[in-house]
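Q: What would this complex look like in 3D?
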Amino acid sequence: MEFFEKTGKFAIGSRLRMLNEKISKDAPEIYRLFNVELQPKWFPAFHVLSQGEEKTITQLAKEIGHSHPSVSKIITEMSKKGLVTEKKDEEDKRRNIVTLTEKGREISEKIAFQYQDVNATVEEMLAQTENDLWKALGEWEKLLEQKSLLERVIEKKKERESKMVKIVEFKPEYKQAFRDLNVEWINTYFKMEAADYKALDHPEEYILSKGGYIMVALLEDVPVGVCALIRMDDDPDYDFELAKMAVSPKAQGKSIGKLLGQAIIEKARSVGASKLYLGSNSILKPAISLYHKLGFRMIEGRTSPYVRANVHMEMNLN
Amino acid sequence: MEFFEKTGKFAIGSRLRMLNEKISKDAPEIYRLFNVELQPKWFPAFHVLSQGEEKTITQLAKEIGHSHPSVSKIITEMSKKGLVTEKKDEEDKRRNIVTLTEKGREISEKIAFQYQDVNATVEEMLAQTENDLWKALGEWEKLLEQKSLLERVIEKKKERESKMVKIVEFKPEYKQAFRDLNVEWINTYFKMEAADYKALDHPEEYILSKGGYIMVALLEDVPVGVCALIRMDDDPDYDFELAKMAVSPKAQGKSIGKLLGQAIIEKARSVGASKLYLGSNSILKPAISLYHKLGFRMIEGRTSPYVRANVHMEMNLN
DNA sequence: TTATTTTGCGTAATCAGTTACGTAATTGGT
DNA sequence: ACCAATTACGTAACTGATTACGCAAAATAA
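A: Here is my prediction, written as structure tokens for the whole assembly.
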């Protein structure tokens, strides 16, 4: 299919489907060729049963990787053709125990040649190709077991998007964004406090001029996240408080908080700080989890000028 | 899936289907993740249209490798969502010309990132495997284009079965089979003639004792085909007539005729014959085609003791 | 022991594709 | 110039799978 060469890997699902279709279109003919009165779709269940043991519907479903209603239907069909018998389990009356009949066993012998020839054909085809389809399928099954395609795509998306985010130092033109982004999230969870207004309305005066820092995350040159490092003159244990971290809800899911956090910690380190403090609230689970990832640890028995702070964390920079 | 390791290559169809299923289960989520209001099944048609040109239903179907009713449905659905417009071709009023709308074009821009991320994800997965699934799929498509799975299996079957056929010299115990196999086919197409009875009822007397030969094809020690080499004393041009070739209808499709023919020609050669004759009838197309394959050429203007012979062939053994 | 949860499995609805078929328009052969 | 064959495409029926749902039996918890 030329189409696939043009669309690229995006269409791998379609491609699998179409190859499967080409192959399974021949399947009924092949059964007819060998005079085996079996529908191709019966094969997986039939094959498991022909190993000799009796099985329940759900056991079969699990082994062949189908849904149980699918197996249920298949077994009813085979039962009608006299290939299997169903009987209720005496001990557990919900169970439907399926066994191959005499006729079923005869067919399973007859199918051996077909099995052998098809296998040999496929092996021959595999030998004629450079890339082993069979092994490749196995490898993909394993990869997808470890992590689904969706999860992988989510990661890729984040990776790309976080590459588009730039972290820069505060400039006067970001003053409005610094205020707005913070006001937005504070108001969704809490109420603005006096200390908030001071710092957010006058960042130069209350943060920067006192030796603090503000970093801004830009997405396509638009500020979408901010974070501040505020000098702590009142407590000699700490150099800075990490505060005023806010990310626009529109830019969520791009690891912007993480990037900002990493950048601001790097900044603290570069100016010689050795210990940081931060106050947060226990209802902000994702934020606290982020702080943990950045290297902060919980501490007990501190107070903060903010009413909303009921969780206290610190981080050593050495 | 452990199941596939147990069943072997026979289940390659199932395996393709299941991998496809795992992948396509994630597809709608991925579209949602990127905020693209497109159904996964629309993608192939959508992608072709987003290349810019307008297309008819059948053109689309051919390009994406679906049936036209499938495309027809997909286009109606997309049309309802305002992604495409349909309009009748003025020149050929049967044609339904499909174009992307403004909204469709917007989505096609939005999808670019999704496309890019999914592609990158798949590439990454391919890089993590030893056997390249993508290339393998391409190779299989090519192989199946050249020769379908069914054709390949038929060949394999013949190959195996012809290995089970043994060609042996005549023994008295095969006398009945020699007669029955010939009577059966002669009576289905023609009527038995006097010359037939002579040779078939008394092969020792009329064939072997005059320096002729009979070969028998055995399938699991049961005679399923016979063929004779009859001395031609009346015509100095030829050493033998190849005659009385008969294969049981139950054993058709196993190249038994070919094996018998090759064996008897080999026999003729080994006893120093240099030219063979045979007479047949023009309605026996497969037989004549077999004689051609064995090396016989048509000749004109001969007669034969058999009424049914209206085709005459010969073969040089040098 | 009794109430709740889990399990086994059958039925119904849905889904994404297919083949079969019918109709109308166009093309081609005589 | 006309009749037959071919083409475009929509509708309907079918297919092989799935998810959703519900009931009864068994297992578990209170």
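A: To summarize the key features: The longest strand of chain B covers residues 222-231. Chain B touches chain A through 74 residues (CB under 8 Å).
Q: Very helpful, thank you.
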